[in-house]
Design a protein that fits this description.
single chain, alpha+beta, Outer membrane efflux proteins (OEP), 2 domains, six-stranded antiparallel sheet, two-stranded parallel sheet, 11 helices, 8 strands, elongated
Length: 469
């Protein structure tokens, strides 16, 4: 699933937005900038290329090879020897090597077995392993492991993007909700300053007591401290988010004071929770979670290594056959294979196989150990994702409840303020109603932040949050 592109639309140039003192920025803009310029995002993009290069390197073991050698010795006008050899070797996937070549040797001191006809000698043949290296060998195992490494590189890329996306979203949410807290306190201070001005005017006129001004002044001081505390935390969270921001020239970007965060973009978490419910994730967690995919591919790699070590315990029996022809590959029809050929067989084996059996046992233990780790990690991940999913749903419910409660306290505050204007309520009651209303707004803001945090961590644990890039 991909997040709709509308969530990532920019409303202006990113660098210009963050350079201004009064602008609005949303999560989509931040993610767009991070995806394009963040060093970790660029590093993640290199991993698939690394996997491709490693696979190309492993496949190089099956590249045909051509060769040419010439040796000669002349002393006191005598031709001691002149040896010329050229050919090609073609490895195949099944362990059989095809070989063809041409030799032309002469000289008075040439070894008899090296002599060739006047036109030279051409040959074509095969090298065949019969036991060891017949099922698999180092080259084939290397290619299979490189294919796994390529898949692993893609899973590692997804994991890096998952972790990066989670951190960016959490830091953006931290900035957004601390900014909201700061704004709630700012609004409360504005209301209190208006009321303080009115009460002081009435006190001077004699209609209000000194206790009313003291009561309101204490309330004003309380909210002023809350505002200052929220301002410090908003500044810190803004700097934390700025640490993820870079421009196209790899220069750090800092979000200026006065830039306003918008909720747009955070609301996609609800859509993703519906697209990836706990039942889907629990049933296919290993296919979704990149970290588990990496571990599974590691298990498969250990299995290939174990199979290679098992092959090493077999005796090594190699057959070599070459069909010969005078000149350049002129094989006459009906010629005797035995009369115009060379044949060889080699056998070797350790008597006790202690080294081979030890290596096989170590590889088998490594394979079993990695499999057991994968099982345990899969279960732990599944349990954590289920817990985070329920946590996100719980905080979503608490947010809805506190939205209603906050609305009710606002009605009480507005009603008390109307009564106070009419002279039927005290400053104490107005301040108390206002305090409860502000407290519920701050609590609602806290639960909404916890909801976003739980949803983000759940989607990261499920392995899908990185798909927003």
């Amino acid at each position: 699933m991909r997040i709709p592109a509308t969530l990532l639309l920019l409303t202006g140039f990113f660098s210009r937005l963050f350079a201004q003192d009064s602008s609005t920025v949303n999560l989509g803009m931040v993610l767009k900038q991070v995806s394009a310029n963040h060093p970790t995002a660029k590093q993640a993009a290199l991993l698939p290329k690394q996997g491709e290069a490693y696979l190309r390197y492993a496949r190089g073991g099956f590249d045909p090879k051509v060769f040419f050698t010439q040796r000669e010795k002349t002393f006191k006008t005598e031709n001691y020897y002149n040896e010329t050899s050229a050919g090609i070797s073609i490895p195949t996937w099944y362990g059989v090597d095809l070989k063809a070549g041409y030799e032309k040797n002469d000289g008075i001191y040439l070894s008899p077995d090296m002599k060739t006809p006047e036109k030279g000698l051409s040959y074509a043949g095969v090298d065949i392993p019969l036991l060891r290296n017949m099922i698999t060998d180092t080259r084939r195992t290397g290619v299979r492991q490189a294919q796994l490494f390529k898949e692993q590189s893609e899973a590692m890329r997804e994991q890096m993007l998952n972790e990066l996306a989670q951190q960016v979203i959490l830091d953006y949410a931290g900035w957004y909700f601390t900014w909201q807290e700061k704004d709630i306190c700012r609004q409360a201070l504005a209301l209190l300053n208006e009321r303080m001005f009115a009460i002081r005017s009435e006190y001077r006129a004699g209609s209000k007591s000194a206790a009313d001004t003291i009561e309101t002044s204490a309330q004003l001081g309380t909210f002023n401290m809350l505002y200052r505390d929220a301002s410090v935390r908003e500044y810190k969270t803004r700097l934390m988010l700025s640490a993820h921001l870079w421009d196209e020239n790899e220069n750090p970007v800092v979000i200026k004071d006065g830039v306003i965060p918008d909720y747009t973009g955070l609301d996609f978490l609800d859509s993703m929770l519906k697209a990836f419910p706990d039942t889907l994730v629990s049933n296919s967690i290993q296919n979704l979670q990149p970290n588990l995919q990496i571990m599974d591919l590691y298990v498969q790699k250990n299995n290939l290594e174990m199979r290679l070590k098992r092959q090493a315990m077999l005796p090594e029996i190699n057959l070599k056959y070459r069909a010969l022809s005078p000149g350049y590959f002129d094989f006459p029809a009906g010629s005797s294979v035995r009369m115009n050929s060379t044949f060889g067989m080699g056998f070797s084996s350790s008597l006790f196989l202690r080294k081979e059996r030890g290596e096989f046992e170590l590889s088998r233990i490594a394979w079993q150990e990695s499999g057991l780790k994968l099982k345990q990690k899969t279960r732990e991940t599944a349990q954590k994702t289920l817990g985070l999913y329920q946590e996100a749903l719980t905080y979503a419910g608490l947010s809805r409840d506190y939205t209603a409660i906050s609305g009710q306290y606002r009605l009480l505050y507005e009603n008390e303020k109307t009564r106070f204007t009419a002279g039927d309520a005290t400053v104490f009651m107005v301040n108390m109603r206002e305090t409860r209303w502000i407290e519920t707004r701050l609590k609602l803001n806290e639960y909404r932040q916890k909801q976003v945090q739980s949803a983000t961590r759940y989607l990261e644990m499920a392995g899908v949050i990185g798909r927003i890039f």
